[in-house]
Design goal:
The complex is a heterodimer of chains A (about 700) and B (about 80). With about 700 residues, chain A is α+β, with helices and mostly antiparallel strands. Chain A has 4 domains: about 5-210, no CATH class; about 245-480, no CATH class; about 490-665, no CATH class; about 670-709, no CATH class. In chain A, the strands form 10 sheets. In chain A, strands 22, 23, 24, 26, 27, 30, 31 and 32 form an 8-stranded antiparallel β-sheet that branches. In chain A, strands 11-10-9-6-20 form a 5-stranded antiparallel β-sheet, with helices on one face. In chain A, helix 1 (about 5-20) packs parallel to helix 4, helix 1 (about 5-20) crosses helix 5 and helix 1 runs antiparallel to helix 9. In chain B, strand 2 and strand 3 form a beta hairpin. Helix content of chain B is about 35%, strand content about 30%. The chains are: A alpha+beta (about 700), B alpha+beta (about 80). Chains A and B meet through strand 33, strand 34 and strand 35 of A and helix 1, strand 1, strand 2 and strand 3 of B. Strand 35 (about 700-705) of chain A pairs antiparallel with strand 1 (about 35-40) of chain B, so a sheet runs across the interface.
Amino acid sequence: MATVDGEKAQKILMYLLTNGFKATNINKTGVEGLGFDIIAYLNSEGHTVTGDAENRLKVAKGGGMKGNTYSDQVSTPWADNAPIVAETFGGLTAYDIDNWTINTFPKIGAGVQKVRDKNGVVWPQGASKGMGGRNAKPESGFNRTGWDLINIQSIAETGSVDEGWVNEVRAGITTGVVGNSKYELGSACRTFGATIPVRTPLGRAVPSATPPSTPSATPAPAPVEEEEVEPAPAEPAPPSEFDEYFETDDLSVWWKNGDEIELPEPSERMVSTKAWNANGGKIPYPTDARLSVKLGTTREGAFNLEIFAVLLSSGKLDSDVYYEIMANSDSNMEPAIDADGEEYEVIQTPTVILSFYQGQAFIGIEGFGQVPATQGPNLFNYRDLKLVMDEPSAGGAITDVLVDGVSLREIVDAADGVYGFPFAGLEGLENRFKAGNYTDGGPGESAEEQASQALSAAYQTGYRKITHGPVEDIMADLSQLDETLLQPLALDFDTELDLDTQAAYFTLKFESTKDATNLFTGFNINDSSDSNQEEFLFPFDIRNLRPINEDKQVMDPAKRRDGEGIASIKVASKDKGSFTLEVGSKEYSVDLYTQFQMTSDDGTTILVPDLDERFEALDNQGQTLRGVVATSESGRPAIMVITGALDIRDIEKHLTAARRSSRLSGRYNSINELTGQVDTKTIMIQQDNNYYIVVGAGSKTYALKIRGD
Amino acid sequence: MTTFEEQLESIVGQKGVAVLKEVASSSGRSLADMVSLEELDETLGSIEVFSGVNRGPLNLLVLDEDGDEIDLDDL
């Protein structure tokens, strides 16, 4: 018979931990629990249980645990894979045993997480510290394998578990386990309602006699009866992108070591209407330029630390773990008011910013920096971004982003307001935190509760449920767009034209018949093939047009109808190029610019074209014509400055004749067959209720007005 | 000194004046009440009618023999 001291008691508790029994099951009520039964069992077997061991097995606080918490004595060494683990379990590591545990007891495996040991090897973590797997009940789970009493006995006698159990764990044997042992609590480990599997003890497992385990990170292999399996060599796991970010102490913070959130530089540049039209409102955005998207905030569905209090009260969380969580989780809390008007603390509502940069998406939370974003199990990478924008003339607001052709708004909306960190990300929570993936186990074990427990367990390892609203604000640096997509930069108009000998000429293209007027272009009776553009010459055409500037001011100088009232036309010398202009059958060497600034003698100024490459004006019938100024080969608006009074007069005549010719209707005019000229001398017109007769007689012209009322 | 009626007659003829007088009479007005006459010291060269976007007649230009516009805006 042996003496069971404090260290052996600690090892027994550690063994119970591997089977999913937590402190609150070891000591259920202060006078009852599995620990009490084991003490009774050991005594009945003739062992001497010291006071220290007894207090430990009762998980008594204070002196019983020698001032240390259960975590310090049991779960922390376990999670750290301290030397006592191998010493107790025949050379097995905590990871070996966890791997076996989650494959043997599926419910203990609920909420299983991957953990990384100090060598960088990833393992499944089952019943380890802080995991939701420690939920086995003694009444159903104690001695299900038939090994529990053998191992308790072995630890009591030798300080380590039985070799037979170690062999089964090492071989990954998961069979021969009864589903429910129906153990009668308080029976000193004697009474079971189910038939307990019979195991053959092999004696103390000697750590030094067995090679160090190198288990696989993959699920255990198929059972191999009584056969020791040569362990497979450890495979180095891929590096985790998130290890550095996990915060496991303060569960109120989202993550640690987040990188600084860098927002795009605001820019006053705007997309041109021409580019907007050419791209159907979906503007290519460089993948190496920053783009940030702020999401709305919401608390709906937020994770609440109160879950740990619930778990504590229902016996599913150790009190020491609970107090540790609550003591540490306080740096990111804010007050909230409950239904009774009472103030309580909740985790601060996150302000989420999604960032896109150099082909990779990031999720940031104000105050915590940003981390790589995920979508499902993968990092959220992209190859192509497009801005969905309102028409520039309507403000050019960015309304959505197409990420590899998919609407970001739709991606965010599909996440249903939840981002799962680190994985699942913009697809919401991982499946293991969704109630739909659990089977309802009755009161206290509903599918919802199991999912919550799994999430709360994952929270202790750094997992976070981040709530957010829909896309709220899209921030982009439009100056990063291709220059051909942008409105031109403002020019320095440093060169004033001599209006006696110089004039500015351009072609205006109408985008639809609604943009033209009866006068410009009217209907070209002689050439129906091309009536969607018109040439203009300033200052000459001030007699025909009243230009409208970007502030919607109408340029209407007093002597406009006489062709006067333009004070100045200026161009930018840096903007100068050369061009050969063909008007009619004649060619003119002209200076080419992209824009001119015209000022009337009443001080009204207009840029032609405007920054959006457009020009707008009222004609002499008060109708608005608008269009885009035609471009040169460079793709920029072509403003041609003609020098020479005679050339200007030529062009004026040509424009006048061309406009007249295009609108002169053969149907309503009498054309002299010999000269081709109109020779109508008399006409009668109805206007409202009045009639007018215009007729020539000798050297006079008469106009009769016949009033109809 | 020619009368208004004689002046009209020289432009629209006797029959034209007769029709105008009949119309004026039927509406209880005198010829002078219904018809006014503007005389311009410019020789009419031609009258040009221009079409609009709907191909119908939209506006016209009254030109002298040199092709310059005769201003009828005050009519």
